[in-house]
Design a protein that fits this description.
3 domains, 4-stranded antiparallel beta sheet, 3-stranded parallel beta sheet, 18 helices, 9 strands, 11% strand, binds tryptophan
């Protein structure tokens, strides 16, 4: 049984050390565990709710994609995509909107906070509130429910949204009498809330106390660390390490012996300046190599686009069958099956990719995938049993990751092309 995780990051800014320690690093580590399937995406539709600067949305999406990849996300294991590349998400959003109680949305934290601020300022309660902000939790429910994940790793501020997704899922299942949606569970990392910012409060854009992750390079990291607030004890004076921002940040990157050492040395009088140098060294040892990859990725957005398109194709192969069931369930139906309405022409049939299974002179079983024109896309390794080859084909058709199947791509063929062909098969 595989466990599925799904999480998104809103594309309105760049990521900081707190995002890395609290969200990216644990999510990437989890994605490498056996039996885990991960769906990570850039929530750019959510970005539009908070930001109407197109250049910023675009740039942030690029930065977040590059950050995931630079931090070690393996796109063969993880389905990485842009929310707006999946038309199934807004489609599902509408189906869910129609079973969501308005009163429930009135209680959403983000909306309530906006209303409270308006009332406090003597404004109309809904001043400046868009329908996007109001419906934010429904879009988020669609992101989640489309993939039926078991767990959704998020910060504490998002837990209410996961609960709303569960409610909406339940209401849909109940209204249309089926187990369409699994009820997802929020997963909050204790660590996620812990990393303090420069002034000791939680590290957050809104407090302007962040340590940037990659942007601004080594220099920005050094400058941010220099701004960490400490007490005014001089070098040589004993210092209390526990509870300090500096030590908390150091702990997030250091080994156990390094953690013990910095505590002992601070107690023995290590200067804050030297301690900051230690902090810089441990942080940079981990993220320095990632920053180099980040810069390379940012300089080659086309390469990232290929990865995102392959991710979107994989995600859509998962999403389209569920959405077809949902449309059927709610009554969005054709008058007659498509195939009967419009018999396929010879040409349309020929344009579909096909799997071919066969046995070689060596007595073993193989399959290959041909594109609509009959060109070879991939070739399997040999199987001892015909039914093993058949089962592998079935798994691929059902959306299993290519990386998990024993096969090689034909020369010059990219993963993205194969994903697109599999999507075309699923659509057909
Ligand atoms: N709302 C989330 C945030 O601001 C981002 C997000 C959008 C998300 N869709 C999601 C997180 C689905 C988890 C699952 O942090």
């Amino acid at each position: 049984m595989t466990t599925r995780y799904l999480t998104g990051i809103t594309t309105t800014g760049t990521l900081h050390l707190g995002n890395y320690v609290g969200a990216l690093r644990p999510a990437i580590a989890a994605s490498r565990q056996p039996g885990v399937e991960s769906f990570f995406f850039m929530a750019d539709y959510h970005g539009l709710i908070k930001c109407d600067d197109p250049a910023r949305i675009e740039r942030s999406t690029q930065q977040i994609a590059a950050t995931w990849l630079a931090a070690g996300l393996d796109p063969e294991r993880v389905v990485l995509y842009r929310q707006s590349d999946l038309p199934e998400i807004p489609e599902l959003t509408w189906l869910l909107t129609c079973v969501t109680a308005k009163g429930q949305m009135n209680r959403a934290h983000a909306y309530k906070a906006a209303v409270d601020a308006n009332v406090a300022a003597g404004e109309d309660a809904d001043a400046g509130v868009t329908m996007g902000l109001y419906s934010y939790p429904i879009l988020m429910a669609a992101d989640i429910l489309l993939f039926n994940p078991h767990f959704v790793p998020v910060g504490k501020d998002q837990v209410q949204h996961i609960e709303m997704a569960r409610d909406v899922a339940q209401r849909f299942n109940h209204t249309y009498g089926g187990e369409f949606f699994r009820l997802p569970e929020a997963q909050t990392e204790a660590e996620m809330e812990l990393l303090p910012g420069l002034d000791g409060r939680k590290m957050s854009k809104s407090y302007d106390n962040v340590v940037p992750l990659f942007e601004g390079g080594e220099r920005a990291l050094r400058e941010a660390i220099a701004r960490i607030v400490t007490d005014s004890k001089l070098p040589g004076e004993p210092k209390q390490p526990e509870g300090t921002t500096l030590v908390a940040l150091h702990d997030a990157f250091a080994s156990a012996p390094q953690r013990a050492a910095i505590r002992a040395e601070l107690r023995a009088g290590l200067g804050w300046g030297d301690a900051k140098q230690r902090l810089f060294d441990v942080v940079n040892a981990e993220i320095g190599p990632m920053r180099a990859r980040y810069d390379t990725l940012m300089a080659d957005p086309a390469q990232m686009e290929t990865i995102l398109q392959a991710g979107a194709a994989r995600a859509r192969r998962e999403a389209t069958p569920l959405l077809a069931r949902l449309r059927e369930a709610v009554g969005l139906r054709r008058f007659q099956p498509l195939a009967a309405a419009a018999p396929q022409t010879q040409q349309a049939r020929a344009a579909k990719p096909t799997f071919k299974q066969y046995r070689e002179a060596d007595g073993r079983f193989y399959f290959k995938l041909l594109d609509g024109q009959g060109a070879l896309l991939l070739q399997s390794a040999p199987f001892d049993q015909g039914r093993e080859a058949g089962a592998c084909v079935a798994r691929l058709k059902a959306g299993a990751p290519l990386a998990d199947a024993p096969l090689t791509l034909a020369e010059g063929v990219t993963t993205a092309q194969v994903e697109a062909a599999l999507q075309a098969l699923a659509d057909a």
